[in-house]
Amino acid sequence: LLGVDIKSTTEDVFPEKPFWGGECYSASSYMYGRFETMMKPNSLPGLVTSFFLLEVVKDVDNSLVDWYEVAIEFAGKTDEISFALHWMTDRVKQSSVKVVKLDFDAAEAFHKYAIEWTPTSIQFIIDDASAAVFDDSDILEEFHHKMSLHMNYWVSDNAAWAGQFQESVLPQQTSYSSIAYYKLVET
């Protein structure tokens, strides 16, 4: 069982953001397959729990060149979930997002969340049922390279997206009980 905590940081470490978060990620990168976790998010207003694939490419001056992300996100609440694809075109961020209202509170129990990534679609799955599918070939062309697997829990400064964070809720924790990757085997 992996718990990711958010606590107050000292302001001299990150003076622009006194609250941070935690992240775990794979040392390896993967292309195509099923990525799944058993997760129990705890996303109060201003807090984000996520499970995602990511590839970031930076220039020699550390400026962002390319960014590719396939994400499952709980942003400030646990009765809805966001499924998102993010990428860059000519150094401009692009996104395609589907928000789904849940018929349960995800914070009450562990549920299985999965990403099934193939050359022709990216499907998001909750408890073995399809919740959203992205199959636009123009968008999927952007996602033909390896990405690493990430999970994190963090404080957002985007109140319009995740709600207004209140320091009084700290400390908080979100939980992941398992993580798995199954490689796509083409027949």
Average of pLDDT: 88
Low-confidence stretches: 1-12
One letter per element, helices H and strands E, the order comes to EEEEEEEEEEHEHE
Structural class by SSE content: mainly beta
Tell me the β content: over 45%
Give the fraction of residues assigned to helices: under 10%
Radius of gyration: 17 Å
Question: What is the subunit organization of this protein?
Answer: single chain
Instruction: Based on Cα principal axes, name the global outline.
Output: globular
Strand order of the largest sheet: 1-12-3-8-9-10
The total count of strands amounts to: 12
- Figure out the total of helices: 2
Keywords:
187 residues, mainly beta, six-stranded antiparallel beta sheet, 2 helices
The gist of it:
The chain is mostly beta strands and 187 residues long.
Walk me through the structure.
The structure is a single chain. The protein has 187 residues and is mainly beta. It is built from two helices and twelve strands; from the N terminus they run E-E-E-E-E-E-E-E-E-E-H-E-H-E. It has helices at residues 137-140, 159-162; strands at residues 2-6, 21-30, 33-40, 47-58, 64-75, 80-89, 92-101, 111-117, 122-126, 129-134, 147-155, 172-183. The chain has a six-stranded antiparallel sheet with strand order 1-12-3-8-9-10, with no helix packed on it. Strands 2-11-4-5-6-7 form a six-stranded antiparallel sheet, with no helix packed on it. Strand 9 and strand 10 (129-134) form a beta hairpin. It starts with a strand and ends with a strand.
Fold blueprint:
Blueprint: E1 2-6, E2 21-30, E3 33-40, E4 47-58, E5 64-75, E6 80-89, E7 92-101, E8 111-117, E9 122-126, E10 129-134, H1 137-140, E11 147-155, H2 159-162, E12 172-183
Antiparallel strand pairs: 1-12, 2-11, 3-8, 3-12, 4-5, 4-11, 5-6, 6-7, 8-9, 9-10
